[in-house]
Structures are given as structure tokens and as C-alpha cells.
């Protein structure tokens, strides 16, 4: 792909999060949204009108087959991610798949196997991983700014009304807090510690529709390192992360929602306030990573590697196994 070429995007599943992604793309001068696919023509047309998308299809397959599309953003319900991603990969399209990457690790492994067999770019759309503040966090940890990292605490939860027909409360759509927002702190712990936890202790409140309405987990990563995470769809939580080291700590404000500020505290030193703002809503950074990978001929990102994505899915499988929570398609 020429270094200066425009990345032409298609979107599958024109819901709320697809709109957020479409807005994010407007921050990239080398990105163009050219196609959208929905199960209903009127939904594709409505989305297309709002975001100026020229080609609007009444099927997902039409986006995958469009020769003018370079990369596809998959924003369908959790339960459809694997099927939709594999369809696009088999059509030779680069894929940015919204989190959670899949329902479970088995599906994730299948997606990765197809991408690697065909040599096509695939990446999980863990958008917070690509925010400038998270890049600085990784730099600080690599430089030993707070010494040996010992603990992480992180949360992401909100309160909404119970609606059995909503994707958040429908087991057939992979509902519940863990897959929808709990993945953020689980992924953050993975970013900080690397690898999978050796031990997990967890508890959940399973609601009347059969999905987790709030939950917490303690994950042990060996050598005494511990992550404590919690999540909810029926309880508001602070949306904060603290990374505790042997010589200091990093406190990140709202890391799962447009994080721009953090405080670095070191023993015997004044606190350091770091702010890294950005234009737009922040979703442009994951799209820019796809563009970088395409231009460099990469089939996966070194910021959000596929092996780590699968490992995170395995961790969430283990958490759900402890609750006895299975989805109908499993």
C-alpha cells in the first residue's frame, strides 16, 4: 500500500458505537468512510446520511465484498463478532473488531487462525490501549519510574435499568458487565503485568436474565503481583486505575473513558501531574494503528497483539467458569 494512500473504511453494524468510531475517523486526514452495512436498508441509509457514507448496503456481506474497502470496523453485537470478522478476513479485508473480540477464547482462536492463514491484518478494537496517556504509562513502567509493579486496581461500571431485550441483559447476545465493560480493566491488567494470571478468585451477582450485573475479581500474576478489578451494569463505579509499585504509584483518571490525566507519585518527591489531551473522541487512534500496520505490511499490531487478545479472552472465560455462567451458543 502506498505510504500516502487513503485508508478506505467500511462499517458493519451501524449502531451507537459505530457512530462514535465514524466521528473518530474524521480526525484522520488519511481515512475515509466509504461503506456501511446493516441488516436493514433503512438503518444503513440513516447512518449513511448522518456520516456522509456514499455506499449503503442492506447486508454485512456486501461490505466485505466491496472492492473499494480496505478495512472493516465490526460493531455488531458480541455474539456476531467471530462470524462477521471471519467473513471479512476471508474476503481479504483488514479487520478492526470491537471489544470483546469474541464470546470466548475458542472463537477468538478461530478468528486469529483465519487471519494468520490468509495473511490479513486483524486487531481488537481496545481503543483505550491506543490513547496517548496509555502510551506514556507504558513508557513510565518500562523505565522503572515507580519501581517494581506490585498491584493494580481498576474498574469500569455503570448503572442502567434492566431490559431483558437489551444486548446488555440478553445471554444470547453475550450480555453482562464482564464482556461489555469488565474487559477494560482486565485488559489493562494484562497490559501492565503481561501474560495470564496464575490464580483467579472471583464473585458475581447474576441477575434475573442470567447475566452478570456486577462482579469483582482478584487475579494473581506470580511473584506476589495482584490485580483487583470490578465491573457492573447495575452499579456506577469511579472509572479509575491505580498502578502500585515498590517506589511509587500511577493514578489514572477515568482510564476507560477518554483518559487524559494521570498523577505519578514517587517516594520523597513531589507528585507529577501529566496531561495528554487530544482532539476528537479518541477512537481515531485505533484506526490510525490499523493504517500504520497496513502501510508497514503488518498482519497484527505490536500494541494490541493477537496472542494477548486471545489470552485476555481465556482469562474472562476462567472468570465466567467460576461463576458457572455459560452463554447459549457455548
Characterize this entry briefly:
With 330 residues, the chain is an alpha/beta fold. It is 33% helix and 25% strand.
How does the SSE layout of this entry go?
Layout: E1 7-12, H1 16-25, E2 31-37, H2 41-51, E3 55-57, H3 60-65, E4 71-74, H4 81-90, E5 94-98, H5 105-118, E6 122-125, H6 132-142, E7 149-157, H7 177-193, E8 199-206, E9 212-220, E10 226-232, E11 240-245, E12 248-253, E13 261-266, E14 272-275, H8 284-295, H9 306-323
Parallel strand pairs: 1-2, 1-4, 2-3, 4-5, 5-6, 7-10
Antiparallel strand pairs: 7-11, 8-9, 9-10, 11-12, 12-13, 13-14
Helix pairs in contact: 4-5, 5-9, 7-9
List the defining traits of the structure above.
330 residues, eight-stranded mixed beta sheet, 14 strands
How many helical stretches? 9
N-end to C-end Cα span: 39 Å
Mean pLDDT: 96
Range of strand content: 25-35%
Q: How big is the Rg?
A: 20 Å
Structure in words:
The two termini are 39 Å apart. The protein is built from 9 helices and 14 strands. It is of the alpha/beta class and 330 residues long. Helix content is 33%, strand content 25%. The strands form 2 sheets. An 8-stranded mixed beta sheet has the order 8-9-10-7-11-12-13-14, with helices on one face.
Amino acid at each position: 500500500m502506498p505510504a500516502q494512500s487513503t485508508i478506505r473504511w467500511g462499517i458493519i453494524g451501524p449502531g451507537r458505537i459505530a457512530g462514535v468510531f465514524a466521528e473518530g475517523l474524521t480526525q484522520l486526514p488519511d481515512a475515509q468512510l466509504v461503506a456501511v452495512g446493516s441488516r436493514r436498508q433503512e438503518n444503513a441509509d440513516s447512518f449513511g446520511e448522518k456520516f456522509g457514507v456514499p455506499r449503503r448496503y442492506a447486508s454485512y456481506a456486501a461490505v466485505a465484498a466491496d472492492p473499494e474497502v480496505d478495512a472493516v470496523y465490526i460493531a455488531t453485537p458480541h455474539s456476531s463478532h467471530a462470524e462477521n470478522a471471519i467473513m471479512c478476513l476471508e474476503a481479504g479485508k483488514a479487520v478492526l473488531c470491537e471489544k470483546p473480540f469474541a464470546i470466548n477464547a475458542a472463537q477468538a482462536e478461530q478468528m486469529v487462525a483465519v487471519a494468520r492463514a490468509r495473511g490479513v491484518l486483524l486487531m481488537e478494537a481496545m481503543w483505550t490501549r491506543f490513547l496517548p496517556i496509555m502510551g506514556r504509562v507504558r513508557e513510565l513502567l518500562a523505565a522503572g519510574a515507580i519501581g517494581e509493579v506490585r498491584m493494580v486496581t481498576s474498574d469500569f461500571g455503570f448503572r442502567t435499568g434492566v431490559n431483558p431485550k437489551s444486548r446488555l441483559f440478553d445471554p444470547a447476545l453475550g450480555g453482562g458487565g464482564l464482556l461489555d465493560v469488565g474487559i477494560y480493566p482486565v485488559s489493562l491488567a494484562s497490559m501492565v503485568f503481561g501474560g495470564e494470571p496464575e490464580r483467579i478468585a472471583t464473585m458475581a451477582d447474576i441477575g434475573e436474565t442470567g447475566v452478570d450485573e456486577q462482579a469483582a475479581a482478584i487475579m494473581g500474576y506470580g511473584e506476589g503481583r495482584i490485580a483487583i478489578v470490578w465491573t457492573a451494569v447495575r452499579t456506577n463505579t469511579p472509572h479509575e486505575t491505580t498502578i502500585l509499585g515498590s517506589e511509587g504509584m500511577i493514578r489514572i483518571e477515568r482510564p476507560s473513558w477518554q483518559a487524559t490525566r494521570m498523577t505519578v507519585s514517587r517516594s520523597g518527591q513531589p507528585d507529577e501531574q501529566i496531561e495528554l489531551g487530544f482532539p476528537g473522541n479518541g477512537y481515531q487512534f485505533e484506526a490510525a494503528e490499523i493504517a500504520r500496520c497496513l502501510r508497514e505490511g503488518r498482519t497484527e499490531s505490536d500494541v494490541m497483539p493477537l496472542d494477548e487478545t486471545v489470552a485476555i479472552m481465556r482469562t474472562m472465560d476462567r472468570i465466567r467458569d467460576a461463576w458457572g455462567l455459560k452463554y447459549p451458543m457455548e
